[in-house]
Amino acid sequence: MTFLYQGYSADGSRRSGRIEADDEADAVRALLAGGVYVRSVRRASSSGVRGGARRRLDVVRRAVLWRELGALLGAGMSPDKALDLMRQSDGADEGMLEAISAGIRAGASLSSALVDAGSGADAFERAAISSAEASATLPVTLTRLADELDARLEARSRIRAALAYPSFVLVLGLLVAAGMLGLVVPRATAMLQASGMELPFASRVLVASARFAAALVAPLALAGVLFFAFASARMRRGDATAEALDRFILRLPMFRLGSIVAAQRFSSVLSALGAGGMPVADALPLAAAAMNRPALARPALAAAERVRAGESLSSALRTIPFVGGELARWTAVGESAGCLPQMLAVAAGRFKARWERTLALRLSMLEPALLASVGLFVFALALALVLPVLSLANGATAF
Predict the structure, then answer these.
(1) Does 356 lie in the same domain as 272?
(2) Residue of 168 and 336 predicted with greater confidence
């Protein structure tokens, strides 16, 4: 039987690993004979993880994993040994690291072991790692992958920070509007009616419009959240419905950035595979998986079949919606100059720079748009209340 152990050597350094023994007592005796003072020993489960207790790695932990693993592999360490070393210093992810390491020791590639262990690595990460294993550039690719995830986390932080103040203003505006609609407007209307006056027609229209807008905000927001939750879950299936939903989302003005990110991932993976010597037709399916967009991945797979049939890569890529035209221009230059991987790397950099510029521009426009919307809403209610006063003042002047 196989047992997993943790302990210390005579000099105080931590030791852990696997040992074959008949039972736990035999394992402890063998370890003590080898100079290991045992802290814990347990039987390895079929998956190599204690009781199946392992959790998926989030983006933060995966970025750390790729960076540390890339550094250890660059130093000449094998993947399973590197993972075992990392496991000794990372108790939180010990189960997951052990599962990945066990898969590699069983003969699986790193990309396959990540899938089998349920690591949480997305299609882009798995495709990048698979391409790096095929091109023997795993240490460099893992470092680049960590940089990509760090950039993704930074972008999320920027979006959240940029949305914090507008969201506060929006909530404050809605509270003010609710107070005015629930308290000020009814009391003002009652006072006018008690004095024998009614709200002017323009005031009634403004109040009705404000109430309609306020009543519409919550259902629309809820519907939007539910739609994108459903679309996100459905797109994981990769079927025709997922493709249609993804195509619809990419046509929305605020979500066209998704096609730019997909093009950047596609170019980056295809560049790495091409630099490693993999044929374009074989590299295209991996690059298509890295896009993680059903509406773009299926046309990219169809482009791979067209390349196998003898069509040029630039011509085949034109069939990919949203980004195919620009990808085709970069690949046409690379094909004609004989430097396709280099041009694809340049294209990936350009797509990334465009994404960052577009994101910064849209975030800068969001704050004044929200402020203007709230301001117009409050102004409409204030005007509705002022109009009767002005009408009364004009009547008093005429008298």
Answers:
(1) yes
(2) 336
